[in-house]
Amino acid sequence: MLRLIAVYAVFASFAFAPVAPAAAQGLPAGADPQNTLVIDSTQGRIVVRLRNDIAPGHAARLKQLAREKFYDGVPFHRVIPGFMAQTGDGQNGNGTGGSKYPDLKAEFSQVPFKRGIVGMARKGGSNDSANSQFFIMYADGAFLNGQYTVIGEVMSGMDVVDKLKKGEPVPEPDRMVTVRVAADVK
Q1: Residue 15: which residues within 8 A CB-CB, separation 6 or more?
Q2: Which of 63, 120, 121, 152 has its CA 20 to 30 A from that of 83?
Q3: How far apart are CA 155 and CA 9, in angstroms?
């Protein structure tokens, strides 16, 4: 009888143990669901850790736009082999637009631009003109250090980024099908 009670106790501890949400279960180790973007693209999934510790304004903007579904269906309009893949123009889809919100002040850091780093694109010569567009680095880009805001880093899915159709502009570009804050994924 004691053996049966012990087996039941073990079973019950597993049956009633808290289970992480499905989204959290699919995230890379160390991911903070509140500061992670899940980008489902036409080529597969890209998971980005947002760096709200170094660029809080930019991180808040990307999360806001993701929650508004601004990025859904937006193309990777500029993809340059050996350099970067750019997206985030939910207004025009071609790199000339932004969101309805004001441009952001630069939040430069000491984090270097290297493969997998996500940076904010900006307009012309103004450091304070980032809005909604961002890019993912294919390789080191030290010449961007101190010139663009680092907003995050790809935690998983660089193989997906590598598969994106290339071009400037990209004919029949790959797209971000959905972009969600991981904590919001059901």
Answers
A1: none
A2: 63
A3: 38
